[in-house]
Specification:
binds heme C, elongated, about 55% helix, mainly alpha, Serine Threonine Protein Phosphatase 5, Tetratricopeptide repeat, 12 helices
């Protein structure tokens, strides 16, 4: 149920309470000479009014449509609620207050003036997604719930959709970090993520070294050796991998004797 910005303005405008609202942030700033938004901390403490952020900016920051938070209330449609049952509009309202408070703290902590201090906006955390999380956290959760293959599929989907934006870190390090947390307990899932990493970063020596480690956990020294050799081919300066390789070869030849 997508709705254009204009559509929602039209429907919201039917609400009696609405007439004043869009104008009020502007009214709050009318006394100020500059067009730049005035930080809330500069207002008297008694002022309860929190200026609404620009709604187009809010929607873009979360990567959502207006209808993510707003519904056409005149039809008696139910509110848009989060998985917890809490209305998204309520969450957003509290987020607006939180963002204002963060900016007041940042200004005080940095000792900078209102215009000098860097402002936190919705996008600072949200970066184009409704529930901002680090990619490594998302992937780890999926591995634990549904396994490495499902996580790899999710990674591909997210990469397809968000690559080149600021939403997620698609660098080699992020998958590597997630895989490293799984090496000991879930070596197969770790290998799935590391192979995925190699698909996008074919010269990731660290991925080969980590795969080698996973294979030692699986008591498969032959595969471990192959992967360590590959890691060293890509990064001959990895002394740790070299030591590991010699040790594994030693162990292997001794066990075959
Ligand atoms: C992330 C949630 C969110 C999104 C997305 C969002 N809004 Fe809002 N909007 C709010 C909140 C919160 C308020 C303040 C409501 C209040 O104080 O009762 C608000 C207020 C408004 C108001 C003032 C009237 C009112 O209901 O209080 C208008 C008009 C409005 N939004 C339009 C839009 C439009 C148009 C879009 C899409 C471009 C949009 N909004 C996207 C959360 C959102
Ligand atoms: C300091 C970081 C931070 C800032 C700034 C921030 N948010 Fe959030 N917001 C979060 C986090 C984290 C979540 C996810 C919470 C969860 O559900 O786990 C979230 C969740 C939300 C949700 C619920 C999304 C959903 O679909 O369930 C809304 C709505 C929202 N934020 C609106 C806003 C708006 C509007 C602003 C700007 C006025 C804003 N946030 C600024 C951190 C932030």
């Amino acid at each position: 149920m997508k709705r254009t910005a204009r559509g929602i303005f039209a429907s919201l405008a039917l609400l009696p309470s609405l007439a004043l609202l869009p104008a009020s942030p502007a009214a709050a700033q009318a006394a100020q000479p500059a067009a730049a938004p005035q930080p809330v901390a500069a207002q008297p403490a008694a002022a309860q009014h929190v200026p609404l952020p620009d709604m187009e900016m809010v929607a873009r920051a979360l990567g959502v449509e207006c209808s993510h938070c707003h519904v056409r209330r005149r039809n008696g449609e139910p509110e848009v609620v989060a998985t917890t049952g809490k209305p998204k509009l309520e969450i957003a309202k509290e987020m607006i207050v939180m963002t204002r408070d963060l900016n007041a703290t940042i200004q005080a902590a940095s000792g900078k003036s209102a215009t000098e201090a860097t402002r936190v906006e919705c996008i600072t955390c949200h970066r184009g997604v409704a529930i901002p999380k680090q990619l490594s956290e998302i992937i780890l959760r999926t591995v634990l719930d549904n396994g490495g293959a499902a996580a790899a599929e999710q990674y591909r989907e997210l990469r397809e959709r968000y690559y080149g934006r600021a939403s997620y870190d698609f660098s080699e390090a992020e998958l590597l970090r997630t895989a490293q947390r799984l090496l000991d307990r879930r070596p197969d899932d770790a290998i799935a993520l590391l192979e995925l990493n190699l698909e996008y970063n074919p010269s990731s020596a660290a991925s080969y070294a980590a795969i080698a480690y996973a294979f030692t956990r699986k008591r498969d020294p032959v595969s471990a050796i192959m992967n360590l050799e590959k890691a060293l081919e890509l990064n001959p300066n990895d002394g740790f991998a070299r030591g590991r390789l010699e040790q594994l070869k030693d162990d292997l030849s001794r066990s075959r004797r």
